[in-house]
Amino acid sequence: MTATLPRPTPAGSTRTPVGARLGGLLRARETGIALLIVVVFVAATVKNDAFASANSIQQLLLGASLIALLTVGQTMVIVTRNVDLSVGSVVGISAYVVGMTFRDHPGTPILLGFVVGIAVGAFFGAVNGAVVTLFRVPSLVVTLAGLYVIRGLDGLLVDGVIINPQSIPRGFQRIGFETVLGVPVLFLLVLVVVLVAAYAMRSFRSARDLYAIGSNPDAAELAGIPTQKRVFTAFLVSGSLAGLTGALFVALFAQVDVTAGRGYEFLVVAAVVVGGVAIFGGSGTVIGAALAAVLLNTIDQALVSSRISGFWTDAIAGALLLAAIAFDRSLSLRIARKLRTQEGAHRDV
Amino acid sequence: MATAAPHDPLLVLDRAEKSFGAVRALVDGSITLYPGEAHALLGENGAGKSTLVKILAGVHQPDAGSLVVGGAPVVFAGPSDARDAGVSIIYQEPTLFPDLTVAENIYMGRQPTVAGRRIDRRAMNAAAREVFARLGVVLDPSRPARGLSVADQQIVEIAKALSLNARVLVMDEPTAALTGVEVRRLFDVMETLRAEGAAVMFISHRLEEVYASCQRVTIMRDGRFVRTAPIDEVTVDEIIRSMVGRDLDALFPKTTTEPGQVVLDVDGMSEDGVFSDISFQVRRGEIVALAGLVGAGRSEVARAVFGIDPRTTGTVSVLGEVLPAHRPRAAMAAGIALVPEDRRQQGLVMDLPIDQNMALASLGRLATGGLLRRSAERKLAADWARRLQLKFGRLGNPASTLSGGNQQKVVLGKWLSRDPQLLIIDEPTRGIDVGTKAEVHRIIDSLVAAGMAVLMISSELPEVLGMADRVLVLHEGRITAELSRADADEDSIMRAASGLTSGATA
């Protein structure tokens, strides 16, 4: 640089605070949700001290586990600017197939129950992913169709025959009610998946590719990212985790009918968005989404425990969704303004 | 390549062809790049330059022809192949990931890792910082790319190329969105890469840049290679003739007019962190240009006058009538028209037909009883297409089918059909080829001759000097100079744009 003119680059060391603060704000989403959980928990306990009992807390964790597990796959999909609305139906059908396997083949090893569930889920995830990537159909349409098609298949399969606890091996059911040091095993299992996924989403190139694809699909293509392959993988993981959720559904409830998993897709998408995953992709964390699943369930249980109508739950979940989106919007506006005024301030130096 | 003699070419593309359906985008794409040389690729829009770039990038696979890099024939199946062969591309439109950090943007897909293939963020940020140091800029690698200025985005792209140790650097109109010092900085970087033995290919519509920085020039027309020559063996006229295939009339027609009544009066307009204390007037029959570096606040001033962006203090009046802040409708009603700088994003609805785009600003006038008649839209569009000499297939085709210059004419037609008192036009000829450029200039000149007031923003100094009656220079959100047509020259504008007249020192 031999130029005698001052460099107009607004860049400078003064930028670091904004970068740091931005990171702080993003992290604040997770802390914010965790705080909200505590607030709701304390409020509900004040109203009814049974809410803080060990049994109640265990139910709280168990109730949130299935949706929290689904948010992991959904986060991966939404981060790529797609959505998987078929997860609820996939949970239902894989739960039934797992139950059927145990019923029709007594003596099936417990581990095989999980393998079957994951395989069924992976199959439907692969179909979703293939249709989305090969035919370039918007995932909203593909997975909405999937929601109904799979639900229909499930109905044909169930054909009015409910799977009873008698058909499910005792050992499998124990996963649903055993605890370690007071913590439900099923919750621990989900926690492990969430933590592993959260770590992977931060630390592996292929996972960062997912963020890149959602952030700017054209640029991802130009950067040589195998976008179709990555999106396919995201759907495959989402399907597989829905299959695993189906198997855990059987372990938890020991009873499967055609309503299993119904409506889960909306609970999951709501949790993911409340958890700070941008609905148009590019940003958000697995931890935030999973925490939001716990938050929504805590609110649900708190209302039940305080004998407030369950209809409030839906209204509150909806309001939280709006609040989350409004918060994201105002945050991004604030950041844009901050960067601008800061550049302005820097120029005035 | 240490083994290669200095005059062995680094990259040879020979007679590449590419068709998209029935459209033959490239009939004969040929170019030879030598190490340590900057090579300009010139041609009008639609001449096939971008297709050629995308073949080098591995985005398009040629239907015929051969590509040799470093002496070995290669076939690029995708962008990563090109990257692995040492070919780096900097596109016209920055291709960053706004949600990811600057460092991740640079190292996407090849982040430094530690055991277990985990990304090493610390090493990645350190490496990015090192690259920025080499470039002589300070940018925080851990900040997100969202909110970076265009110039800084370009720097990130260059840092990416630099970190790849690219042997061949292809830049597709990198300076279109830059001005003055940014451009000079880019050329410094180009110089450095050249000195290290890289081959640089450079696309620009600004011939003065080509003469300043390139050693060789290749000209294309209608998808075909026309000629290659060392830069000092061709004149500007020869280049333009080869590009256009005919002689051009003056690029900057200028009818002298006597400025009349004040149309726009801006007094003490400020907005925190964007611009402050902006006062100026625009009269009938004159072109006032806002000049300055990117980020100096030129577009923001124009957008605040029109009411798209907010302004906190000051008054804006049109023909004596004070306009409310932040109310574009009021500005339109008062007779202001704004042709934005980004016609794809802001000027046009790319998927809508040409005629509907043209009618978009006049819907109220075209509707009867609240219902819009297609025939009225079509009539308005046909009328303006004729007056602006629009080149189109059918008026019912989407605006995206038009070339950049003709798209700009559609945006112009859309606003001119409202018969405005004041036309604000932001980068009137950005990314438009030389032939259409002259046409756009002639249109603006005839409007002014007919008594319209024009506020023009341009990053191209020749355009500012050639078209403007008065030049206002902005530096960091303030007007640092007001120059008459007689006083304005490259030097006076650049000094004011860099803040040198306001006592700042380098």
From TrEMBL, chain A:
It is found in: Cell membrane. Pfam families: BPD_transp_2. InterPro entries: ABC_transp_permease. GO terms for cellular component: plasma membrane. The chain crosses the membrane at residues 31-48, 60-79, 85-103, 110-135, 175-201, 231-254, 266-296, 308-327. One of its GO terms (molecular function) is transmembrane transporter activity. It is a multi-pass membrane protein. The keyword Calcium does not apply. Keywords: Cell inner membrane, Cell membrane, Membrane, Transmembrane, Transmembrane helix, Transport. The complex is composed of two ATP-binding proteins (LsrA), two transmembrane proteins (LsrC and LsrD) and a solute-binding protein (LsrB). Part of the ABC transporter complex LsrABCD involved in autoinducer 2 (AI-2) import. Probably responsible for the translocation of the substrate across the membrane. This is Autoinducer 2 import system permease protein LsrC. It comes from Klenkia soli.
From TrEMBL, chain B:
Residues 11-247, 257-501 form the ABC transporter domain. One of its GO terms (molecular function) is ATP hydrolysis activity. GO terms for cellular component: plasma membrane. Keywords: ATP-binding, Cell membrane, Membrane, Nucleotide-binding, Repeat, Sugar transport, Translocase, Transport. Gene3D superfamilies: P-loop containing nucleotide triphosphate hydrolases. PROSITE patterns: ABC_TRANSPORTER_1 (PS00211), ABC_TRANSPORTER_2 (PS50893). Pfam families: ABC_tran. The keyword Nucleotide-binding applies. CDD domains: ABC_Carb_Monos_I, ABC_Carb_Monos_II. It comes from the Bacteria. It is found in: Cell membrane. Transmembrane segments: none annotated. It is a peripheral membrane protein. PANTHER family: CARBOHYDRATE TRANSPORT ATP-BINDING PROTEIN MG119-RELATED, D-ALLOSE IMPORT ATP-BINDING PROTEIN ALSA-RELATED. This is Monosaccharide ABC transporter ATP-binding protein, CUT2 family (TC 3.A.1.2.-). It comes from Klenkia soli.
